[in-house]
Structure formats: C-alpha cells, structure tokens
Q: What sequence folds into this?
C-alpha cells in the first residue's frame, strides 16, 4: 500500500491516474496532515529542480574532438591490413610449393635409387640425445607455452568485448 | 539569427562528415554528462575521463543510433555503462545498494572538513544549493544518478528506465527512495550546520 509520501510524490510528479489525482487534491484541501506534507514535499521538489549542473574543464570539448581526430587518423590494424593482399601472397606460395612438388615427383626415378652407405660411416646415435627426461621436459615446456598462449588469447578476447 | 538545430539534425550532419556538428552536440550535452559522471566517480578527473570516453564511444557508434529514443537517453545509457565499467575497474564498492558504510564514511569526512575550516569560502558556499550538492554527493551512485536524470536530464521515468536498463516501475521506486534518502541527508547536514553555529 502506498504511504502518504509516496502518494503525494506521485501527485507532484503527475504520475498517477486522473481519479487518484482528484482524490489526493481533495485530501490536501481537507486534511491537515496531507496539506503540511504536501507543502513540505513541494518545497523539496522545487529545491531539487534548482540543483546546479557541474561544469567540466574549459578544454573538455577540445579534448574530446582531439581524441576523435587522433582515433580517425590512426585506423585500427585490422582495417589497415588488406585481406586481398594476404590472400594473394598465400595463393602465390601455395601454388609455387605445389608446382615444385609436382615437378620433383614427376622427375623422380625410383628404380634409379641405389644408395649404398659406406661401411666406415658412423651414424649418430639418436637415442643418446632423446632420452626420457629430455622428451618429458620438452613436452612440459610445450604444455606451459600452450597454456600461456591460450591465456593471452582469452585476455585479448575479453578486452575486445569490453571495448 | 539561426535557430538551434535538433540533436537528430546534428547527428545527420556529423554522420555526413561534419565534425563541427558533433562538437555542437558535445557542447550541448557535456554539462549533464559530466554531472552524471560525477555522481559515479566523485572526483573531477575521473568524471572527465568517463565523460570524454562516453562522447568518443557515442561518436564511434553514432551510425547505430536508430533515433527510436531521444539522443540524450541513448547517450545517458552509454554514460551509465561506461561509469559502471570504470567503477568496476577502480574496484570501488558500488554493487550493493544497501552497503552505505562507505558513504557514511564520506559523511563523517565532510563534517570533519567543515569543522576544521577546510573550506576557505565556507561563508560564501553555505547556501541551500551547496548543501544540496553535498547531500547528493553522499548518496549512492544509483540514487544520485536517478535523481539527476529526473530533475536535470528532462527524462521521463520510462526514458530513465531505458537508459539504466530497468523497468519504469523500478525507476519510480528507486526515485522515491532516493528522494527520501536525499531529504534525510539534507536535513542531517543542515542540522549539523545549525549545531555548529550555536
């Protein structure tokens, strides 16, 4: 249920129905409590309406327009990069690699391959280098690196959303 | 004399590449945007930063402004979002509407400042308007923003609701509570002042 104050504020704001407005008008005219409260709230309302706005610094407008101009002068990297150029470079390299691969494969004569390893040639023992601790360390480093990159990716995504 | 262009006309000009039209828009709304930012930030520097950020964001998304609501309503919704993000970044406690401890502390501080003769122009400033502004500063940001929008933003309850992303009825309740709190704070400040004078 609305209190006297709530009813009177609605009346002052004009946010109540016509019937309510009539009823409250009658109450103000005939009821001392309502009249005193109404005058008190009316005075407050007048005071609130007279509140002054704060003034920003004199350079505010200039600063805003300057920031906008600077932003426009520096297009974001996404816009500066032409996607067609990137696609062109990619297509060029893919085609070159494909042509080279095709040429090489077409000129290989498998029957002509007869490689004889000289008897004195000593191949390096790979097992001595790739020991279990080395491989585990390598995998651990990879995992940390992957987590770091994933974290950076998520942060960037979050920042973009905020903007 | 040339009549003042409407916000919509200025937006159209700004979108057509006329930056001075946007300058006019900034000049027209800067006082209110800054005041609204002050309700959240409580320091002039931070409020200017928020207000500046708002106008830049508004410029960036000017093309997306549909014109279904008033430009001011749209702009104030940007102020509200920007101010809330700013507060979150600054880690100022504003989430809980019931947690008034921080503002009670501000009350105590302002009394201490007054009692110690902190304000040189005390005699000049001690007008009703001065106390009203002091009381608004002591309100919670949400309350202060609703009161400022209602009395100075020339917005209806529905428009305030649009800007704050709330129902008009919620705004009505908030406004009622905010006015009551403001009245209490104003009375308390003036009572304290009267005691000091005695």
A:
């Amino acid at each position: 249920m609305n209190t006297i104050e709530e009813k009177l504020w609605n009346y002052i704001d004009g946010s109540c129905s016509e019937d309510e407005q009539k009823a409250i008008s009658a109450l103000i005219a005939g009821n001392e409590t309502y009249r005193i409260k109404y005058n008190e709230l009316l005075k407050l309302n007048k005071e609130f309406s007279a509140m002054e706005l704060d003034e920003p610094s004199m350079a505010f407008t200039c600063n805003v327009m300057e920031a906008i101009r600077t932003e426009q002068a520096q297009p974001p990297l996404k816009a500066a990069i032409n996607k067609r150029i990137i696609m062109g470079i990619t297509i060029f390299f893919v085609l070159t690699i494909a042509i080279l691969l095709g040429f090489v494969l077409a000129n290989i004569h498998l029957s002509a391959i007869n490689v004889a390893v000289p008897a004195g040639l000593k191949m390096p023992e790979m097992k001595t280098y790739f020991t279990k601790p080395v491989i585990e360390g390598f995998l651990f480093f990879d995992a940390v690196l992957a987590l770091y990159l994933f974290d950076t990716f998520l942060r960037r995504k979050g920042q973009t959303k905020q903007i | 004399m040339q009549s003042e262009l409407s916000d919509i006309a200025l937006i159209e000009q700004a979108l057509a590449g006329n930056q001075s039209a946007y300058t006019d828009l900034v000049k027209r709304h800067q006082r209110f945007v800054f005041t609204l930012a002050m309700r959240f930030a409580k320091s002039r520097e931070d409020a200017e930063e928020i207000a500046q950020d708002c106008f830049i964001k508004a410029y960036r998304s000017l093309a997306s402004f549909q014109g279904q609501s008033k430009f001011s309503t749209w702009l104030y919704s940007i102020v509200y979002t920007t101010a809330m993000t700013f507060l979150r970044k600054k880690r100022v406690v504003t989430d809980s509407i019931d947690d008034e401890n921080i503002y009670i502390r501000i009350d105590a501080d302002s009394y201490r400042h007054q009692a110690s003769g902190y304000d040189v122009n005390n005699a000049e400033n001690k007008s009703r308007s001065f106390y009203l502004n002091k009381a608004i500063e002591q309100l919670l940001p949400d309350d202060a923003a609703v009161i400022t929008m209602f009395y100075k933003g020339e917005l209806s309850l529905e428009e305030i609701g649009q800007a704050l992303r709330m129902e008009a009825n919620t705004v009505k309740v908030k406004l009622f509570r905010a006015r009551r709190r403001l009245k209490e704070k104003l009375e308390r400040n003036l009572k304290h002042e009267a005691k000091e004078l005695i």
